[in-house]
Specification:
It is a single chain. Helix content is 40%, strand content 21%. By secondary structure, it is of the alpha+beta class. The protein folds into three domains: 4-62, OB fold (Dihydrolipoamide Acetyltransferase, E2P); 66-142, DNA polymerase, domain 1 (Orthogonal Bundle); 145-202, no CATH class.
């Protein structure tokens, strides 16, 4: 398996990033592609998981090894595929997901696209008690980011449009997204921040 790819971010879209390493561009699907920044001078490390099935060969990438570990564990749950795993991790709150599993909080888990009561129960049955090793070193909870204190840049409709497309890729229905759009239009955020803000509202 490819442990990680270190290179420059050449392309970002709502579904994946392209990392260039030694003249090869790797297409890597990520929970929130916009957490990565396009920069031809700085090298970025992306921790990867190679997903192989009869009809698909794809690379999935994460900011930390812990996020990748949780993704792999989610893939082992019946009813959870790569798309579902990415949607669960997209909010940048793996610690909260782990706690929901340990606390048998089905109500929280069913808020993710494609996760119904049966799948939520299966996640809890399969993973409860098996995730403690992730908690001490898991990445900070970005979901509770204080948007009033972070530095923002003047936004454009393109930033919000990209965020909306990313939410659709994750599996959120257009009707769900439309409900929160009026609030998002009031803010001036980057694409990444729009996605986090939207997920904050969708998962309430």
């Amino acid at each position: 398996m490819i442990e990680f790819i270190r290179g420059t971010i050449e392309h970002i879209n709502p579904e994946y990033i392209v990392v260039e390493n030694n003249g090869i561009g790797y297409q890597i699907f990520t929970p929130n592609p916009f957490v990565f920044k396009k920069n031809h001078e700085n090298m970025e490390t992306v921790y990867t998981y190679q997903y192989v099935r009869e009809d698909i060969l794809a690379l999935y990438g994460f900011k930390t090894r812990q996020e990748r570990a949780l993704f792999v564990k989610l893939l082992n749950v019946s009813g959870i595929g790569p798309k579902g795993g990415l949607a669960i991790l997209a909010a940048g709150q793996p610690e909260q997901v782990v706690r929901a599993i340990e606390n048998e909080d089905e109500a929280f888990l069913v808020k993710f696209p494609g996760v119904g009561k049966k799948t939520a129960r299966q996640i809890i049955l399969d993973l409860k008690g098996k995730l403690h090793d992730l908690l001490p070193s898991i990445s900070p909870d970005l979901f509770t980011e204080d948007f009033d204190s972070v530095e923002t840049v003047p936004s454009s409709l393109k930033d919000l449009d990209e965020a909306v497309e990313a939410l659709k890729v994750l599996g959120y229905a257009e009707r769900e997204i439309k409900k929160i759009l009026p609030d998002l239009h009031k803010e001036q955020l980057t694409t990444d921040q729009y996605i986090k803000r939207a997920l904050q509202k969708l998962l309430k």
